[in-house]
Amino acid sequence: MKQFYADLGGQSRPFRYKLSDRIEIENRFGCGLMELIRDKVFPTDPHGKFLGGGMLSVQIALLWVGLRHANPRRVTEAAITEWLSAIIEADGSVFAPINEAMRAVFASGVLGKAVDISDDEPDESKVQAETDPPQGS
């Protein structure tokens, strides 16, 4: 499986997502992970067009559950907030680490099946089709 990293706090930090992380996030925010990504992390219109923004607390939580495995004592939501603040203060964009987190989520298989994420933009319809539950006949 391809490894994804975020440059935060002066370090390149690896993402790792497990099924228990998905359960924790879904319980915390009261909805499915795919719905959370679509509505709160990278909100899109019905045609899949990115609307901008997103809910920062959800974005930070998803960064945290993916990054905490490497160093649980050092990687906290408060630390991630500080690291993102430093990016903004340096005229950078917080979307780079958030985008890498989402790529890591899709590649990890926690949505039911690992989606092959290339360095190109993911095909939204392919990602949706590969993460939708099977339809009954």
Overview of the molecule:
- The protein is mostly helical and 137 residues long.
- 49% of the residues lie in helices and 6% in strands.
- It is built from six helices and two strands.
- Strands 1-2 form a two-stranded antiparallel ribbon.
- A hairpin with a 2-residue loop joins strand 1 and strand 2.
- Helix 3 (56-67) crosses helix 5 (95-108).
- The longest helix has 14 residues, at 95-108.
- The chain is globular and about 35 Å long.
- The model is unreliable at 121-131 (pLDDT under 50).
List keywords for this structure.
137 residues, 6% strand, two-stranded antiparallel sheet, 49% helix, mainly alpha, 6 helices, single chain
List the secondary-structure elements in sequence, H or E. Answer: EEHHHHHH
- Rounded Rg: 15 Å
Average pLDDT: 87
The biggest beta sheet reads: 2 strands, antiparallel
Shape estimate: globular
Low-confidence stretches: 121-131
Number of helices, counting only DSSP H or I runs of 4 residues or more: 6
Briefly characterize the structure.
The chain has 137 residues and is mainly α.
Draw up the topology in text.
Layout: E1 5-8, E2 11-14, H1 19-29, H2 33-41, H3 56-67, H4 77-89, H5 95-108, H6 124-131
